[in-house]
Fold:
Amino acid sequence: MRIPTMWRLAALGATAGLLASGAGAQVIAITGGTVYPVSGPRIENGTVLIRDGRIVAVGADVAVPADARRIDARGKWVTPGFINSATTLGLAEAGSPQFSGGYNDVSARGEKGIAAAFDAWRGINPASTLFAPARQEGVTSVLVAPGGGMIGGRAAVIDLVEAATADAMVRKAPTAMVGSFADPSSGETNARAEFWARWRTLLDDVKAYQARRAAYESGNTRTLAASRADLEALIPVVSGQLPLVLTVDRSSDILAALAFAAEYKLKLWIAGGAEAWMVADRIAAAGVPVLTGAMNNIPGSFDALGQRQENAAMLRAAGVTVVLVGNGPGDPESYNVRNIRQEAGNAVAYGMSWDDALRAITLTPAEVLGVAGQVGSLAPGRDANVVVWSGDPFEFESVAEEVFVRGRTFTTLSRQQQLLQRYLTLPPAYTRP
Structure:
């Protein structure tokens, strides 16, 4: 197994030189690499010029200022930083409080499965040890989303910068309202029809609350289906301003979700979508994006009996907007957020074009999440979330040699690097068994 250059040098004590933050370097020029802007064609022997954390020029004939810090990318690939749109980064670590003293702030208690007013990003731990390994594998932005219940709460886009507060990491909040159809036969409902009836009652009550706020505040309305805070949080959803991302797998449930969104004029995203390929034409016609992965073809429930690894490719071929997220093993939403490039590589292996796969973890999620004017491509005016790869990022042996987030690199070692550093050189008194 090839050990990434940064790991080997860190283990030898050269970490400071390799992982310098570059705080004093205001101009950075990445030169000579094969540049993949995503928003435009590939550029051979290209240059990406960064000034004060922003990209100011991309091309084959870019003038490099004399005072620029140069990064020689000859023989290397340069891409935008990857975006993982389904994570719980910073919300949980080491399981739950009863296990190893860890914490889990992924889900709110809510009321009867509704926690619309729960802003998941406000509980982010900026010191989480899970940020560094994700960043070092080329992930520079993520959607941090809540889970649990019929409505889990609101999600936000964050950048994987080192910061003292969660607010300093946030790029866009709120980004979407998160709901789930993962198991309609448990909790507050016992059947699919009851689940959709409850959604209709809830959204009708949101509209009633919006129209009669004064009467509600004076106690002159009937009891509504949710708390005041949750009703307020859902107003942007019913007005079509805030997207509703709904986890749903079965093809018939996807069709029901599309019909429900059309009825209430909602801006819908489908997450999971194990059987989405079966109704790809209907999804494409509705203009609904699908957030799905390509590393799993084993059904986790009867809802996902049609799970297949060609799902993303088949959806894309039908004209669906596809955002690749983790659906592989080993907690892809937390510990293995970094595996998003393997998801993309597998999508290519199962029929998706390489260009579409790169777009599905860069510019497409940026467009869906509403941050394409800032990240997701290498273009002048964008924030400098840029990665220099040793080779094709979808190949297992390739490594991210330089990762810039908002034009900066970071010094924090991942837990994996710390362990390598600790055990690469055994103590003198150690005796092999």
Observations:
- Confidence is low (pLDDT under 50) at residues 1-24.
